[in-house]
Amino acid sequence: MEENRRILVIGTGDTKADELLFMRERIEAVGGVAVRMDVSVLGDPPYRPEHDKHAVARAADTTIEAIIASGD
Length: 72
Hints:
single chain
């Protein structure tokens, strides 16, 4: 893998943190840079993602609270 290649890892950090952290570890083990985006709605991940769920909601012109209230 080309050194410093950035790979976006998108997932629900509230329920899949172990899997997402494993993916980050594997990406970094081969010289990549894992950039994490959290798309959780149930809770917060046990790590600080580079793009948290609030930033994702803002990018969609809404709030995480509105997304949760939609029940979808």
